[in-house]
Specification:
elongated; 24 strands; 24 helices; six-stranded parallel beta sheet; alpha/beta
C-alpha cells in the first residue's frame, strides 16, 4: 500500500460514493470505446459493491459513442457521389440517443459478466426543478442501492431543452461533472470522485514540465494561481468544469477527489486514503499552513519576512525573542499535552528508546527552552557589526560587516526542542527559516511552531518561519538553490548523506557523532571515572555522548580501570570491545568501530599510546568531539596538535560540546564541516559578511589620480 495521507482519514467512514467517469476515460483517442479501461473500472465497482459500499455512477461518453456509430453508418450508406459533397455535422441530440443505447448495453454486458446488476437513470436539468421528482429520485436510488444495484446516471441529452449538448452551460447543472456534484448533494453521498485522463489538478497545464500536482486544493490559495490548459479533447469542459463542480460540492460539505481513470485500482487507492489525486474539502483552508504549501512560495515568503526583520532595530528584534519566551511559558500545558501524545504514539509504534528519549520534553525542559531564548535576546546584536575597517584611499573607507545568510532550511529528527533553539537563532541572526521535523514529533512541532509564529509581529509576519510537514516537499525545497542559502540537516547519517547527495545548496552539519574519550596512562583515574561516566550517561542519545572509550594498554590490569568497567556495567551500559578489549574483558566484539549507539552502549579498545589513539580517531571517528584525560602535558599537546576534529577537550566531558554550554545561547546544530562554521553552530555560524564602501565621488578611471593607502582604521565600539 502507498503512503496514507493523514488528512484523508475521513475516507475510512465513507459508505456512499458518487463516481463520475469522463468521456476521455470511457473512449480512446479514436473515439471508440476504451474497453480495457471500462472493464477494469467495472471490476473495481464490483469489489466495492461486495464490500458494502453504495456506488452511484455518472457516466459520460454517450454523445461521442453515438457520433462514432452514426458516422460509420453514414459512411456505409453513402454513395461515392455523396462522399464528394460537403459533410453535414451530425445532430448532437441524435448522437446522444444512439450513443446512450450503446453505452448502457456495454455497461450491462460488463456488469452481467461480474454478476452485478445495473440500472439506467436519465435526467434533464428541468427535472430537478420539480420537488416531487427529486424526492422520487432519492427513493428510487435508495431502493436500488438496497438491492445492490449500481445506478448509472447520464444527462438525457436527446430530449434536453438545451440548444445543444456542448453549447449551453445554463441551468441547475450544465454537464456531467456538475450533475455528479448535484447528485452527491441530493443523494447525501459521503464522497464524490471525478475520474479524469490526468492524475489530478495541476498548477498549470499537465504537459508543462514545471506544473506540479496539487494534492489538496485550497481555494484561498489556488484559485488565482492555477493556469488551465486546453479543455477535454471530447468532453464539455475538461479540468475547468471538474474544478468548478468540485469546489461547489466541497463547500457544500461533500469531499471530492479528482484522480486518473487510467491508473489501475485508483478508486480502491482513493478509498484507502492514499496520497493520490487532488482532494477538495471544506476544511482545507484550515490545513493551509501545514498542507500542500508551495515550496518556492514558502521560501520566498521567508526571505521577504527576513528582510523586514533585518530592517528592525536591535531592540525590536530583542523584543520579539522575549515575547516568544513568554509565549512558550504561557503555553507550557498545551505543549506538554501535544508532546505527551507524540511520546505515547512513538512508544506504541515500537520506536527505539533512544528516539523516544530525544522526543520527550522532560520536566523543566519548557522553562529551560524559554530561558535559552531570553539568553539569546540579551546577547549583543550580531547583525551589522563592523569586523574590519580599511582606508583604501583618501576619503574612501571600506568596512567588512556581519550580515544574515538569508534563508535556512533545517531538517531535523525527533527532537522538538531543536525547533525552539533553531527558530530563536534564526530570529537573532536575521534569517528566514524553513523547518522540517520528524513525523514522530509532528504534534509537538506544530504547537511550538504555532506558539512562536503567533508571537512574531505582523510587521514581520509569521511566514518568517515556515513549517514543512510533508516529506514529499523536501526534494522540491532542495532544488531551490536560488532562494535557500544553507541546509542544515540534524539527524542520522542516512539523512545527512541523502541531503548532501540531493542538492546544490551548501550543506552544514555532521553525519555521525562518534565521540571518543582517550584515557592515558598518566590520567588521574578518579577524574577519568567521573568524565567517562558523564560522557556516556548524562544523555546517551545526544550526538556529543561518548561512543568509544580508548584506554592506554598499561591500565589494563589496574584496579581503577576495573572499577570503571564495573561502574559502567552497574549503570546498565552494554559494552562491546575491539579485538584486544573483547578478549581481555570477555565482552562481545563490536562489528565496527564506526558506530553511533545513541543509547546505553559503547565500544572499548586498548591502544599502545597517544599516537595510536590519534590514529584510531582519524580512522574511525566522525570529526565531532574528542577528549583526552591525561596529566602528561606533552601527551596532551600531541593530542591537541594532531586530532583535527571540530572540538577537542582535555580533562572535560564530551557533553560540554553544546551551543548553550559554549555561551552561544543555543545551537542550530554541530558542524564537522571544514568550511564556514565548525563545532556548535550558534548565531555567528548563521552570519556571513558583506562589504560597505563609503566614498565622496571617487572613480577608478584606470586608477589614474588615486593613491591607495590600504590603511587599517580603528573600529568604533
Amino acid at each position: 500500500m502507498g503512503d496514507v495521507d493523514s488528512s484523508r482519514g475521513f475516507l475510512r467512514d465513507v459508505k456512499r460514493i458518487v463516481l463520475k467517469v469522463g468521456t476521455a476515460v470511457v473512449t480512446r483517442n479514436d473515439g471508440r470505446i476504451a474497453l480495457g479501461r471500462l472493464g477494469a473500472l467495472c471490476e473495481q465497482l464490483k469489489e466495492l459493491n461486495t464490500q458494502g459500499y453504495e456506488v452511484i455512477l455518472v457516466s459520460s461518453g454517450a454523445v461521442g459513442l453515438g457520433r462514432q456509430r452514426l458516422k460509420y453508418r453514414q459512411l456505409v450508406n453513402s454513395s461515392f457521389a455523396d462522399l464528394q459533397k460537403p459533410q453535414v455535422e451530425l445532430d448532437g441530440k441524435a448522437c446522444a440517443a444512439v450513443g446512450q443505447n450503446c453505452l448502457m448495453a456495454l455497461y450491462d454486458t460488463l456488469f452481467s459478466q461480474l454478476d452485478v446488476s445495473s440500472a439506467q437513470l436519465l435526467v434533464t436539468d428541468s427535472d430537478f426543478r420539480d420537488r416531487d421528482f427529486r424526492k422520487q429520485l432519492s427513493d428510487t436510488v435508495k431502493s436500488l442501492l438496497s438491492l445492490k444495484v449500481i445506478p448509472i446516471f447520464n444527462e438525457n441529452d436527446a430530449v434536453s431543452t438545451r440548444r445543444a449538448p456542448y453549447e449551453d452551460s445554463s441551468g441547475i447543472f450544465w454537464d456531467n461533472d456538475s450533475l455528479a456534484a448535484l447528485l452527491a448533494l441530493e443523494l447525501k453521498a459521503d464522497l464524490l470522485v471525478l475520474l479524469s485522463d490526468v492524475e489530478g489538478l495541476y498548477s498549470g497545464p499537465p504537459s508543462d514540465p514545471h506544473s506540479k500536482l496539487i494534492h489538496t486544493y485550497i481555494k484561498e490559495k489556488h484559485q488565482t494561481e492555477i493556469t488551465f490548459g486546453d479543455k477535454s479533447r471530447v468532453g464539455r469542459g475538461g479540468m475547468t468544469a471538474k474544478v468548478k463542480a468540485a469546489v461547489n460540492a466541497a463547500y457544500a460539505g461533500i469531499p471530492v477527489i479528482i484522480t486518473s481513470g487510467y491508473a489501475p485500482e485508483n478508486l480502491t487507492k482513493v478509498l484507502q486514503g492514499q496520497h493520490i489525486g487532488t482532494l477538495f474539502h471544506q476544511d482545507a483552508h484550515l490545513w493551509c499552513s501545514v498542507k500542500d504549501v508551495d515550496a518556492r512560495g514558502m521560501a520566498i515568503a521567508a526571505r521577504e519576512s527576513s528582510r523586514r526583520l533585518q530592517a528592525m532595530t536591535s531592540e525590536q528584534r530583542k523584543k520579539i525573542l522575549l515575547d516568544i519566551a513568554d509565549a512558550i511559558e504561557a503555553n507550557a500545558k498545551k505543549i506538554d499535552v501535544e508532546n505527551e501524545a507524540d511520546v505515547s504514539a512513538a512508544q506504541q509504534a515500537g520506536y527505539e528508546k533512544s528516539l523516544v528519549a530525544r522526543l520527550a520534553l522532560k520536566p523543566g525542559k519548557i522553562s529551560s527552552l524559554a530561558n535559552s531564548v531570553r539568553v539569546l535576546a540579551n546577547m549583543e546584536d550580531p547583525i551589522g557589526h563592523v569586523l574590519k575597517k580599511t582606508e583604501l584611499a583618501d576619503g574612501l573607507v571600506l568596512e567588512k560587516t556581519s550580515s544574515p545568510l538569508g534563508v535556512l532550511l533545517i531538517v531535523f529528527e525527533s527532537r522538538p526542542d531543536a525547533l525552539v533553539q533553531i527558530a530563536s537563532l534564526a530570529i537573532r541572526s536575521g534569517n528566514g527559516l524553513l523547518l522540517k521535523g520528524g513525523k514522530e514529533a509532528k504534534r509537538s512541532n506544530a504547537i511550538l511552531h504555532k506558539v512562536i509564529t503567533e508571537a512574531i509581529p505582523e510587521s514581520v509576519g509569521g511566514k518568517l518561519i515556515g513549517l514543512v510537514t510533508s516529506r514529499e516537499e523536501i526534494p522540491d525545497l532542495l532544488k531551490l538553490d536560488d532562494v535557500i542559502d544553507l541546509v542544515i540537516p540534524r539527524g542520522s547519517n542516512k539523512l545527512v548523506s541523502q541531503i548532501k547527495n540531493s542538492t546544490k545548496i551548501p550543506v552544514l552539519g555532521h553525519a555521525d557523532g562518534i565521540c571518543h574519550v582517550y584515557v592515558d596512562k598518566s590520567a588521574n583515574m578518579d577524574m577519568a571515572k567521573r568524565i567517562v561516566l558523564d560522557a556516556k550517561l548524562d544523555y546517551p542519545a545526544a550526538c556529543n555522548a561518548m561512543e568509544t572509550l580508548l584506554v592506554h594498554k598499561d591500565l589494563m590490569h589496574t584496579t581503577p580501570f576495573n572499577d570503571l568497567i564495573v561502574d559502567l556495567r552497574c549503570e546498565g551500559v552494554t559494552l562491546y570491545g575491539g579485538p584486544r578489549a573483547s578478549t581481555f574483558l570477555h565482552i562481545p566484539e563490536a562489528h565496527s568501530f564506526h558506530v553511533e549507539y545513541s543509547s546505553l552502549a559503547c565500544t572499548i579498545e586498548f591502544v599502545d599510546d597517544v599516537h595510536a589513539a590519534i590514529d584510531h580517531i582519524h580512522e574511525h571517528g566522525s570529526a565531532h568531539t574528542e577528549c583526552i584525560i591525561a596529566e602528561d602535558q606533552e601527551v596532551v599537546n600531541a593530542f591537541f596538535g594532531q586530532v583535527d576534529s571540530a572540538a577537542v577537550f582535555h580533562n572535560a566531558s564530551t557533553r560540554f560540546c553544546d551551543g548553550a554550554r559554549f555561551g552561544l545561547g543555543a545551537e542550530v546544530g554541530i558542524s564537522t564541516s571544514r568550511i564556514h562554521a565548525r563545532g556548535p553552530v550558534g548565531v555567528e555560524g548563521l552570519l556571513t559578511t558583506r562589504w560597505i564602501l563609503k566614498g565622496s565621488g571617487q572613480v577608478v578611471n584606470g586608477d589614474k589620480g588615486i593613491i591607495y593607502t590600504h590603511k587599517d582604521l580603528p573600529i568604533e565600539p
